[in-house]
Write a structure and sequence with these properties.
alpha+beta, 5-stranded antiparallel sheet, 768 residues, 13 helices
């Protein structure tokens, strides 16, 4: 900047010392030098009696007078002041600073970055962008690392919502063509609102924690004062009993002090824990504030996910100081001793000393603390506060301890309340210490993957981990968590209840829960093995075929003829690859009826008519007659007269037929009205039930178990019933079945959720 103001600085340099002129003087020939430099030059011994100009070599017989050059002196002062200001305003770039791309020699810290030039500038070199008209149009931002597309070498300025990353304009015509994209500024604004909400929650949490800390400090101080008062009162009373009670007095004092120390130690520990939480939250707020203040949209979006996780008060358990005893009672008991007889005093003093210990609320065992993994003791038949969704094998983390009660977060139930004496710590993982029955066979060295039913693992997916990833169990911890080495992510952390073992057959058959072949535009349907989709059926059935409209991670949006914009899970869908008897690849067809030419309809609502169909009885004169057992056809989405309490699985008896209409008595709905063409006979034997989802070969006396595909039975698991439990069918009523399990008599289920067990399977199951 000084050079720009005053031109070439060399013209203001002394030709003797080659530095800027200091106290400049001019000699008769017109050349200027530092006063000290020219004097030193002319005072040397070898000048041979004459005085010469060091530049033009003009001779002077006598030493010329040295007159101060006031103009040069002013210029030198201005030049030095300007250089000083520039040096104060700028600082050299450090290892973590953005360096100026145009500095040579000493590199200064950049203050601005130009998105057009893709360069960063210091205070001096950024000036052309403010002065030159062509550069004034460039967009300057706060100095930052400019992100460039590695494929096209273009500026990243668009956000792809489909792939959730930043792309350049060329990417929109290449890999991201057809994706949901928006300008980075729009996505930044939307996510900034969410991040601002997160910051607000963090601030609120800090305020709440600070209030808790203040209250805790007051409680601790009050408790300490109470202990001190108790000591003083005890001394005052006991000294009146002279030597007879002196020893007993000292015993009580020692117990009070010991109890006080224990309580204050606990308070100090809680206080330190609270201060640590506040420190962590303030660090979190600082990170959020820094990200919110950045001008670089790309930097913001690239760092958004790693700082946007929820940081509410639910991450830190609420803590409060709970002293183990109150000292006011001690003072009262001591005062009551003064009027007692000598023998009574001795007895009462002993009782008082013991009372200090007795007043402590039942403290938790020293081996159970907040954060420990615990379970209900096997000796406890029914906990004081009932089981809820918890069982003896459930393992949870202690969230809070208050006296003899504690609050535990189990995977099956949050904020479960129990009694300390009924709990035990889980210190290692064994066959009986796992958090989920289905995970008891997972051990170190097994090959595992995330279950298809898990949408998002508790500890998130991590890098390159999906439902298809197969890894090796490296470690299993006491709290039910495990460490897995995946090919793309070593030391991935998960929980046992979310994992399943992978056998060689699984890998050979490619039985991955995530069908990687599914893409936008494919025709898909819900897999037959899926009983109820994660996002429910809506108007969709197993036979519905739709077109994939959108895929976001594990979720996808499908347009079905029966329901547009239906949301499902990739792992629950399968591609409809070819036309079959009930699967047509084309969505619509044109039919010429005698009554209507060029009639337009969809495949899923049509059926083939053979010659036999044409020459046989019509739908009005079908084989259906009064007394027959019938159900609604699977192809019927909604019956003409609506469902009422009836479903596809309902089986009823025909009571009356009138033309196309018929009256049916279903167990769920008497006198239900239907249409003949929408019904089909139930011809199965055995139970006489439907031949579809209900197993017609299950009968009373059969040995059965719950199907592996059933996550939770319709009537729940009941006590001690699992996928491995094998029972005997006691009774069958329509769809309901009563099963006698070894540990649960009279268990109620539904036939479609059960499967038969042969003798060999039963033997294997029993031995396991």
């Amino acid at each position: 900047m000084a050079e720009a103001l005053l031109g070439d600085p060399d013209q203001y340099s002394c030709s003797i010392c080659l530095d800027l002129l200091k106290d400049p003087v001019t000699i008769p020939c017109g050349h200027s030098y530092c006063r000290s430099c020219i004097n030193e030059c002319w005072n040397t011994k070898d000048r041979k009696g004459t005085y010469k100009c060091p530049q033009c070599r003009q001779d002077y017989n006598s030493k010329p007078s040295l007159n101060k050059n006031t103009i040069l002196a002013e210029i030198m002062e201005k030049l030095r002041n300007t250089k000083l200001q520039v040096s104060d305003a700028q600082s050299l770039a450090g290892p973590r600073d953005i360096a100026c791309d145009f500095c040579t020699g000493e590199v200064f810290k950049a203050v601005k970055s130009c998105l057009e030039c893709r360069a960063s500038y210091c205070e001096v070199h950024v000036h052309p962008h403010f002065n030159i008209p062509a550069l004034k149009k460039h967009k300057l931002v706060k100095a930052t690392v400019i992100s460039i597309c590695p494929k096209h070498d273009k500026l990243l300025e668009v956000y792809c919502r489909t792939d959730q990353n930043c792309v350049c304009m060329h990417c929109l015509m290449d890999d991201h063509k057809g994706h949901d994209t928006v300008p980075s500024t729009i996505e930044r604004n939307e996510k900034q609102m969410k991040l601002t909400d997160t910051q607000t929650k963090v601030k609120q949490t800090i305020q709440a924690k600070e209030k808790e800390l203040q209250k805790m400090k007051m409680d601790i101080a009050s408790h300490s004062d109470s202990a001190m008062d108790a000591v003083k009162n005890s001394k005052k009373v006991f000294t009146e009993f002279v030597k007879l009670i002196e020893d007993k007095c000292n015993e009580v004092i020692e117990k009070i002090k010991a109890q006080e120390k224990a309580d204050l130690d606990q308070g100090a520990k809680l206080q330190k824990m609270m201060e640590g939480e506040i420190t962590e939250l303030k660090k979190r707020e600082g990170v959020l504030e820094t990200l919110l203040q950045t001008d670089n949209n790309i930097h913001f979006l690239q760092n958004y996910e790693c700082v946007a996780s929820s940081s509410g008060s639910d991450e830190f358990p609420s803590l409060s100081f709970q002293p183990c005893c109150s000292f006011e009672d001690i003072s009262k008991l001591v005062c009551e001793l003064t009027g007692r007889m000598e023998t009574t005093c001795i007895r009462e003093i002993t009782k008082t000393g013991n009372k200090v210990s007795d007043l402590s609320i039942n403290r938790p065992p020293c081996d159970i603390e907040v954060g420990d993994s615990v379970r209900v003791k096997s000796s406890v038949v029914i906990p004081t506060h009932k089981w809820g969704s918890v069982s003896n094998i459930s393992i949870g983390v202690v969230k809070k301890i208050q006296g003899k009660f504690l609050t535990v977060d189990f995977p099956e139930q949050k904020n479960w309340t129990g009694v300390v004496s009924e709990m035990e710590r889980v210190t290692s993982v064994g066959s009986d210490l796992l958090t989920n029955n289905s995970s008891v066979d997972i051990k170190v060295g097994d090959r595992v993957r995330v279950k298809p039913s898990i949408t998002t693992p508790k500890h998130n997916w991590g890098r390159n981990v999906t439902h298809k990833s197969v890894g090796v169990v490296k470690d299993i911890k006491g709290d039910g968590s495990l460490v897995v080495d995946f090919p793309g992510h070593a030391n991935w952390k998960g929980i046992l209840s979310e994992m399943e073992r992978v056998t060689n057959d699984d890998e050979i058959n490619g039985s991955s829960s995530l069908d990687s072949n599914i893409k936008i535009g494919d025709k898909v349907r819900v897999k037959p093995s899926v009983v109820t989709p994660t996002h429910k059926w809506g108007a969709v059935t197993h036979k519905s075929i739709g077109v994939v409209k959108k895929i976001q991670g594990e979720s996808l949006t499908v347009d079905f003829p029966e329901q547009k914009n239906w949301t499902g899970m990739v792992s629950e869908m399968e591609i409809v690859a070819s036309a079959g008897s009930d699967i047509k690849c084309d969505r619509s067809l044109i039919v010429d009826f005698p009554e209507h030419a060029n009639w337009n309809e969809i495949y899923s609502e049509m059926e083939l008519v053979t010659k036999d169909d044409e020459f046989g009885s019509s739908s009005l004169e079908s084989n259906i007659k009064i007394g027959d057992k019938v159900c609604v056809k699977p192809s019927v989405v909604t019956p003409t007269h609506k469902w009422g309490a009836v479903t596809h699985k309902s089986i009823g008896v025909i009571k009356k037929i009138q033309g196309e209409s018929l009256i049916i008595d279903f167990p769920e709905h008497k006198n239900w009205t239907g249409v003949v063409s929408e019904m089909e006979l139930v011809t199965g034997t055995g139970t006489g039930l439907s031949t579809k989802d209900i197993l017609v070969d299950i009968k009373v006396g059969d040995r059965v178990r719950v199907k592996p595909s059933i996550t939770t039975p319709k009537h729940n698991w009941g006590e001690h019933v699992t996928h491995k439990s094998v029972g005997v069918v006691k009774d069958i009523k329509f769809e309901d079945v009563i099963v006698e399990f070894p540990n649960h008599k009279g268990w109620k289920g539904i036939l479609s959720e059960m499967e038969l067990i042969n003798d060999s399977e039963a033997d294997i199951s029993g031995s396991s």
